[in-house]
Amino acid sequence: MDYEALIHEALTTPFEGWDFSVFGDRVTYDGTLPWDYERLVRDHLAHAKALLDLGTGGGEFLSSLAPLPPRTAATEAHPPNLPLARARLEPLGVAVTEDTRPFTPPST
User: Fold this and answer.
1) Burial of 69 by CB count in 10 Å (0-12 exposed, 13-18 middle, 19+ buried)?
2) Is 2 a residue whose pLDDT tops 90?
3) Whole-angstrom Cα distance, residue 55 to residue 95?
4) 13 falls in which pLDDT band (50, 70, 90)?
5) Most distant CA pair in the chain: distance in Å?
6) 72: which of 37, 49, 68, 89 fits an S-S bond (Cβ 3.0–4.6 Å)?
7) How far is CA 68 from CA 42, 45, 51, in A?
8) What is the pTM of this model?
């Protein structure tokens, strides 16, 4: 597939939350990292009184951590993910806020 076809596919393929299956076998990752993010979060979550998830996507990961601290909030900037995150997280008592800050790439 040439570059233009890849760009067209990227722009026209629906993408929601943190479901990366649309990439099929084009992205490979063997799962090997020198750290385990979920383990690190869970280690601290047991004593947390509050939790903030920036860029929650569809809220899949955050919801998997339940039960959550009583004061838990999430932000999401990608408009199609907002209803997904709210539907998944608000029943868990999580406030989901739209992040409307403009992204300004660093100057080179």
Assistant:
1) middle
2) no
3) 13
4) confident
5) 50
6) 68
7) 10, 8, 8
8) 0.69
d(CA 8, CA 18): 21
Per the CB < 8 A criterion, the answer to whether 99 and 55 are in contact is yes
The rounded mean pLDDT for the chain is: 86
Structure-token match 């993910």, residue found: 81
Q: pLDDT per residue over 24-76, tens digit each?
A: 766 666 777 778 889 999 999 989 999 999 999 999 999 999 999 999 999 99
CA gap 51, 53 in Å, rounded: 7
Cα–Cα distance measured from residue 74 to residue 72, given in angstroms and rounded to the nearest whole number: 7
Rounded CA-CA distance 105/108 in Å is 9
E-assigned strand segments in the chain: 50-53, 71-76, 95-98
